[in-house]
Structures are given as C-alpha cells and as structure tokens.
C-alpha cells in the first residue's frame, strides 16, 4: 500500500516500499507537486485512495452499470481515444451511432424507424434536456407564428421526477409545474392534469421508471387525459417519455405495454445506455418520432477538425467508446438476450420485495414488477427506537448500500428505502441481503432505547 495516511492534515505520505531514490516522500493533497514521480508510484497512490470507495456489486442505490464482459472491456480499451462528436475523424463510429439510434427507434415502435432522428449523449440527463429543448423550441415557434408571447413557458411533470428535469427548467427558463404524488396516486396518472395545463405548456413528461420507486407512469392514460383537455380547450400538448430505466426494460419484458411511439402524443423518448442498456457510464440516447418534431434550428452544421457535420448535443467532446459498447451489446445479446438479462433482474427484485414484505415492520410501496426497483416504508408504530436511516447505516457497515430518503412534496413526511437490482445481483446475493436485513432488524428491535444520533438531520443521499 503506497498511502499511509495524512501528514499534517494536507499531505499524502508514501509508503517507503514504493519510494525510489530522488522521489518525494509525500504529496500535497490539493496542490501540484513540484517534482515528477514514477508512474508506478503515482498509480499506487491513486489506486489506494480509490480503495475507500464502496463495492460496486453491493451498491443497490445506483442504476448505473458496474460490469461488462471481457470482450467489451477489450473493445473499450481499443476505443478510449475516440471523440464521438468528431464524426469526420471517426466516420465508422458515427455510422454505428446512427444505426444504434435507428435500432432503438424500431425497438420503441416508431412509425418509420428510418425516418426518425436520434443521437447519443453523455447520459440520459443530457438526452432528457435535448427532448425538453425541442418541445420548448416547437412551442416557441408556434406561439411566434401566432403572434403570441413566448416569455412564460411551463413544463408539467411529477413531483417525483428525477433532478435532471429540475435542472432543465432552471437552466432553460421553464416554469416547472409539479403534480404531487400521493398514496392514492403514486405516480402521475392524469388525475387533475387539467389544473396544470395552459397555453404556455410546452409538454408533459411521463416517466417509465420513477427514480424514487421504480414505478411506471401510465403514458397511454396520460395521453388520453390530454386528448380530453384538447377537446375542451383546443390545446395540443405533446408528451416526452423519460425512459431512462424503463426504455430498455419494457420492450423486452412488458412488450404489450403501450408507452412508446405507439402512443400518438409521444414525440420523443430518452433512455440511459449505461443503466439497463448495460453499458459502462457515460451513455444516453434520445430519439424523436420523426424529423418534423425536432426543429431544424436545434441542429448545428459546423466545420470542425476538417469536416462539416451536423451536431445535436450540449457538449462538444465526449467518449465514442460507449457507443461502440452499446452496438456490441445489441449484437451480442439481441432481443432474446436482453429479455433474459432484464427478466432475471425483475425476478430477483420481486423475490427481494416478497422477502421484505414478509418482515413485520415493513410495508411495500411497490413490488418491483415494472423496472427491477422497489421501495418500502415502516408501518405505523413499527418501532419507536429506530428508523429506516438506522437500518441503512447498519447495512452500510456490512458493505451494502441501500439508501433511505424522504418522498417528495406532499409525501415528504414518509421515508422509504429502495433497492435497485442490476445485472450481477444474483439470487444467492439477494438471499444473503435478506438474511442481513433480517439480522439487522432483529438487532434494532432489541434496543432498549432510541438509536443514538450523530446530529445529522437530513439523509446523505440524493437522486
């Protein structure tokens, strides 16, 4: 081990085993060192510092993929240097990107997959923002053509929406109109939607896999409500589907569910390649129904690094390797392989959910039958001495990261705990987790008084 600890609070001491003659014996933590060091020494320092990170396999908080096979890793290392935006220099990668977008459009039942337009992004958050920008721009063009003001756009979405949508509204000057969820309406389902819609509404976001709980929002039901609103008011409101997680689950495991371009109001869909697309982090996708719903003025044609190319992105340099990895998985797994992988995750999630439901203190919020994610909460009066935050802390001591956090807005008094099942969490590991939860609940129930607090009043977890 190269790093022994801090020296005076702002230095990193180097283990003498790794120090070579003429090298420094310590590094400043947050300043450039004056002298060079050997690659092996620098590597060991960084390697040892990173050991303090958690075990990715036991991280049940994240949706992001943490494992790929050896062939994928080999392909990854061969493509580290590719810049996805530089399509002139890497035309083969650019063509593969286009083919992936068409394959995804076909997966999502676009009327004519070859007539759609889509792009890879650094993640589903960027993809979501591009979808939001397109809706805002279409709304602005229509309002301008009608001679109406364009200074007060709003976007309607669930109070349980992922934070990227709050960022979109903040960064691009759109008023967010949050429809609160409740015990009666656990997701945005169209209930009282008319109260949030007006002539300044650029669109409605429907989520296929709510981050808080994993539940699907009923896209077809939301569209039916918008049909009613249009008949009553004349307002034609589009839907963008945030399929960050469900976009790679529903087509394979719930193929009969109509949530995608089979629903006429859906103009765009985003998903995350590095979640249930099964690729290493940083890859997202966004696809529009056809080219008519993506304003031309959002597409740039620029001369860059020797070529003239179209670009649709919020950045100008990002990895191309993940796009190749996505194409590799499409070829490697095919529809049948994706179905087996995703169904295995669903089976493990529902097995875990049934085990949690059988424990006396707990009530399920959902059972993991949409995406392989579920949440639960403490029954009223289940314990006076401990909370789900205490259970999360006890599990963390054993290496498991199972977050607890408050629900949004009108349900902010309700704390839930959530498990995300990803490829690699086996039935055997799930049983070990259930045994650990049972053991820790027994410990907490045995307490004679309240669990000691460290002064923290808010959960150390964000979506």
TrEMBL record:
GO cellular component annotations of the record: cytosol
Tell me which InterPro entries the record gives.
Glutamate_decarboxylase (IPR010107), PyrdxlP-dep_de-COase (IPR002129), PyrdxlP-dep_Trfase (IPR015424), PyrdxlP-dep_Trfase_major (IPR015421)
Report the catalytic activity: L-glutamate + H(+) = 4-aminobutanoate + CO2
* Gene3D superfamilies in alphabetical order: 3.90.1150.160, 4.10.280.50, Type I PLP-dependent aspartate aminotransferase-like (Major domain) (3.40.640.10)
Q: Which UniProt keywords apply?
A: Decarboxylase, Lyase, Pyridoxal phosphate
List every position bearing N6-(pyridoxal phosphate)lysine: 275
Needed cofactors: pyridoxal 5'-phosphate
Q: Which Pfam families match?
A: Pyridoxal_deC (PF00282)
Does the record's keyword annotation contain Electron transport? no
EC no. given is 4.1.1.15
Listed GO molecular functions?
aromatic-L-amino-acid decarboxylase activity; glutamate decarboxylase activity; pyridoxal phosphate binding
Query: Might you name a Gene Ontology BP term for this protein?
Result: L-glutamate catabolic process
Q: Into which EC class is this enzyme placed?
A: lyase
Q: What family is it from?
A: Belongs to the group II decarboxylase family.
What is this protein's name?
Glutamate decarboxylase
What organism is listed for this UniProt entry?
A: Gordonia crocea
């Amino acid at each position: 081990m190269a790093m022994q600890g801090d020296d005076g609070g702002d230095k990193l001491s180097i283990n003498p085993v790794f120090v070579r003659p003429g090298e420094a014996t310590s590094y400043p933590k947050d300043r450039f060192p004056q002298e060079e060091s050997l690659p092996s020494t620098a590597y060991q320092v960084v390697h040892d510092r990173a050991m303090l990170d958690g075990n990715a396999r036991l991280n049940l908080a994240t949706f992001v993929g943490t494992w790929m096979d050896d062939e994928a890793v080999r392909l990854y290392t061969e493509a580290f240097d590719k810049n996805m935006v530089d399509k002139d220099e890497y035309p083969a990668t650019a063509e593969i990107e286009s083919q992936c977008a068409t394959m995804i459009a076909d997966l999502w039942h676009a009327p004519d997959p070859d007539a759609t337009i889509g792009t890879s992004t650094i993640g589903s958050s960027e993809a979501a923002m591009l979808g939001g920008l397109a809706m805002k721009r279409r709304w602005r063009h229509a309002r301008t053509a009608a001679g109406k003001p364009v200074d007060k756009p709003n976007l309607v979405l669930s109070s349980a929406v992922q934070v990227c949508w709050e960022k979109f509204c903040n960064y691009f000057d759109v008023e967010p109109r949050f429809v609160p969820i409740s015990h009666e309406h656990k997701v945005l389902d169209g209930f009282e939607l008319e109260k949030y819609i007006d002539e300044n509404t650029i669109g409605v976001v429907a989520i296929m896999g709510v981050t808080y709980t994993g539940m699907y929002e009923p896209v077809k039901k939301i569209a039916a409500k918008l049909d009613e609103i249009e008949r009553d008011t004349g307002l034609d409101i589009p839907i963008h589907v945030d399929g960050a997680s469900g976009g790679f689950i529903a087509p394979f495991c719930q193929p009969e569910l109509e949530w995608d371009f089979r629903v006429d109001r859906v103009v765009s869909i985003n998903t995350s390649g590095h979640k249930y697309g099964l690729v290493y982090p940083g890859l997202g996708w966004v696809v529009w129904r056809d080219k008519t719903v993506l304003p031309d003025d959002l597409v740039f044609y620029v001369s860059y690094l020797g070529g003239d190319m179209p670009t649709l992105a919020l950045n100008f340099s990002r990895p191309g390797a993940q796009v190749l990895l996505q194409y590799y998985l499409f070829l490697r797994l095919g529809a049948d392989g994706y179905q087996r992988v995703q169904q295995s995750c669903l089976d493990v999630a529902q097995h875990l959910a049934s085990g949690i439901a059988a424990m006396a203190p707990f009530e399920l919020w959902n059972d993991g039958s949409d995406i392989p994610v579920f949440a639960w909460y403490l029954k009223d009066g289940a314990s006076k001495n401990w909370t789900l935050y205490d259970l999360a802390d006890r599990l963390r001591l054993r290496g498991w990261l199972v977050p607890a956090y408050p629900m949004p807005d009108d349900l902010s008094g309700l704390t839930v705990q959530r498990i995300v099942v990803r490829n690699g969490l086996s039935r055997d590991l799930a049983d070990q987790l259930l045994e650990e939860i049972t053991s820790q609940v027994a410990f907490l129930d045995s307490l004679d008084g309240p669990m000691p607090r460290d002064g923290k009043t808010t959960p150390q977890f964000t979506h």
